[in-house]
Design a protein that fits this description.
68% of the residues lie in helices and 0% in strands. With 248 residues, it is mainly alpha-helical.
C-alpha cells in the first residue's frame, strides 16, 4: 500500500544536445573534389593546346622569314635591271661620258657588297663573262631560289595554318564542353545543397509536421548522384532528431 500510494516518478524524454554551427557547416559542406579535378584537367588541356599553338606559330614565322630572305635577292636583281636601262638611256642622251676619277683599289660599291658572299668559283665564272646579260644570268642563278621552293613553302604554310585553325576550333569546343560540365556541376551542387538542408531540417526539426514537410520536399527533388548520396546519407557529428525518434 505504501508503495502504491507513493507518487510515480515521470521519466522525462532525453534531450538532444544543441547543434553547433561547426557541426552544421561540416554536414552541409559540398564535395569540391570533383570541381577541383575538372578545373585542373581543363587548365592542363588549355596549357598543352596553347603550347602547341605557339610552336606552330613560331614555325610559321620562321618559314615566312626564310621566304622573305630568299625573295630579297630576286627583287634587288629585278630592280637593278630597270636602273641599268635608265642609266644607259641617260648616257646616250647626255652624249660622251664624263671622265671620272678612278676608284681606289679594292673599293666596292655598297649595293654590290653582297657579291663577296658568293663562292669563289661562281665569282670566277662571273668575271669570265663577256656580256652583262651573261653575268646577270649567272648572278640570278646563284642567288635565286630553287625551282618549286615557293610553291612548297606556300603549301607548308597553308598546311600549318590549317593545323592552327583546327587546334583553335578544338580548343573552343573543349572550352564549351567544360563550361557545360561546370554549369551542370553547379546546378547539381545547388540541388544537393538544398537536399542536405532538407535532411537536416527533417532530422532536427522541433516539430513533426516540419520534419514530414521536409521529407516531402526532399522526395520532390531530382535523384541524387552517387558521390552526393554517399556524402549526405548520414550527417557526421550530429545527434539524432528528438522528434523523429519519438515512439508513435
Amino acid at each position: 500500500e505504501d508503495s502504491a500510494s507513493a507518487p510515480r516518478q515521470t521519466r522525462e524524454p532525453p534531450t538532444s544536445p544543441p547543434v553547433t554551427p561547426e557541426a552544421a557547416a561540416q554536414a552541409l559542406r559540398p564535395n569540391e573534389g570533383g570541381d577541383r579535378l575538372l578545373l585542373a584537367r581543363q587548365r592542363q588541356c588549355q596549357r598543352d593546346l596553347e603550347k602547341e599553338l605557339h610552336q606552330k606559330r613560331a614555325e610559321l614565322r620562321d618559314m615566312e622569314e626564310r621566304l622573305q630572305r630568299q625573295s630579297t635577292p630576286n627583287r634587288s636583281q629585278e630592280s637593278a635591271e630597270p636602273l641599268a636601262t635608265r642609266s644607259g638611256s641617260s648616257e646616250m642622251r647626255a652624249g660622251p661620258p664624263k671622265v671620272h676619277q678612278p676608284m681606289p683599289a679594292g673599293h666596292v660599291a655598297q649595293q654590290f657588297e653582297w657579291l663577296h658572299e658568293l663562292p669563289q668559283g661562281r665569282l670566277f665564272d662571273i668575271r669570265r663573262c663577256v656580256s652583262p646579260s651573261d653575268a646577270r644570268s649567272l648572278i640570278a642563278a646563284a642567288c635565286g631560289a630553287p625551282r618549286g621552293v615557293l610553291e612548297e613553302l606556300g603549301r607548308q604554310t597553308r598546311a600549318t595554318m590549317e593545323k592552327v585553325f583546327a587546334l583553335e576550333e578544338l580548343l573552343r569546343q573543349e572550352e564549351e564542353a567544360h563550361q557545360e560540365r561546370l554549369e551542370a556541376l553547379r546546378s547539381e551542387h545547388r540541388v544537393e545543397k538544398r537536399r542536405g538542408k532538407l535532411r537536416l531540417l527533417a532530422r532536427y526539426a522541433p516539430h513533426g509536421a516540419a520534419a514530414r514537410e521536409a521529407l516531402r520536399c526532399e522526395a520532390a527533388l531530382p535523384p541524387e548522384s552517387t558521390e552526393a548520396g554517399l556524402f549526405l546519407a548520414e550527417p557526421r557529428g550530429l545527434p539524432p532528431s528528438p522528434v523523429l525518434s519519438r515512439p508513435a
